[in-house]
């Protein structure tokens, strides 16, 4: 599945409690990857903002989206408390199958940083990124670059996915 958003809501319980998560984390499982992977958004944050009350649903786009066969919601609070959450997951079937690549990690050059900060399979002791899904899955849209393969001169080609 390609998961694009999550929606959470607490438990109302006739006003008897404050049973909702103010923050949560997402773990996901993908065939071919060993173990659960902790989701990070484009800013590298693992903790996602949850609810502020028991009744209002909170819709949270997943940027980047997740390709997974299983997902796990992990409620989080800095205080000991009871938390209940209703969840909805938005997305679609991933019919293209899982394609991946391996490449060296980017590096800073002339004040520009080409490192992938949200790469999910980066080993701490390696400069090689393996089993990546690439730009076609993470929602990044390329700008028109004259040297780009398949470059088209017309303005309709600008801001299209590769």
Automatic annotation (TrEMBL):
What the entry lists under PROSITE patterns is as follows: FA58C_2 (PS01286), FA58C_3 (PS50022)
**Gene Ontology CC:** plasma membrane
Task: Report any Pfam family annotated for this entry.
Answer: F5_F8_type_C
Instruction: Kindly give the membrane topology term recorded for this protein.
Output: Single-pass type I membrane protein
Q: Which residues form the F5/8 type C domain?
A: 1-92
Q: Which UniProt keywords apply?
A: ATP-binding, Cell membrane, Disulfide bond, Glycoprotein, Membrane, Nucleotide-binding, Signal, Transmembrane, Transmembrane helix
Q: Which InterPro entries match?
A: DDR1-2_DS-like, FA58C, Galactose-bd-like_sf
Molecular function (GO) terms listed? ATP binding
Where, per UniProt, does this protein localize?
Cell membrane
Q: Which domain of life is it from?
A: Eukaryota
Entries under PANTHER family matching the protein = MULTICOPPER OXIDASE-RELATED, SMOKE ALARM, ISOFORM D
What protein am I looking at?
F5/8 type C domain-containing protein
Species name for this entry?
Answer: Plectus sambesii
């Amino acid at each position: 599945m390609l998961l694009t958003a999550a929606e959470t809501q607490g438990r109302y319980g006739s006003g008897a409690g404050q049973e909702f998560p103010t923050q949560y984390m997402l773990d996901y499982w993908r065939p071919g990857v060993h173990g659960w992977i902790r989701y990070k958004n484009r800013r590298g944050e693992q903790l996602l903002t949850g609810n502020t009350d028991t009744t209002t649903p909170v819709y949270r786009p997943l940027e980047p989206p997740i390709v997974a066969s299983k997902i796990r919601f992990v409620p989080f609070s800095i205080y000991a408390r009871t938390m209940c959450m209703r969840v909805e997951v938005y997305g679609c079937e991933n019919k293209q199958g899982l394609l991946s690549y391996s490449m060296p990690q980017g590096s800073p050059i002339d004040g520009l940083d080409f490192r992938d900060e949200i790469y999910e399979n980066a080993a701490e002791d390696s400069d090689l990124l393996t089993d990546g899904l690439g730009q076609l899955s993470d929602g990044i849209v390329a700008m028109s670059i004259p040297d780009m393969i398949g470059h088209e001169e017309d303005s309709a080609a600008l801001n299209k996915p590769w």
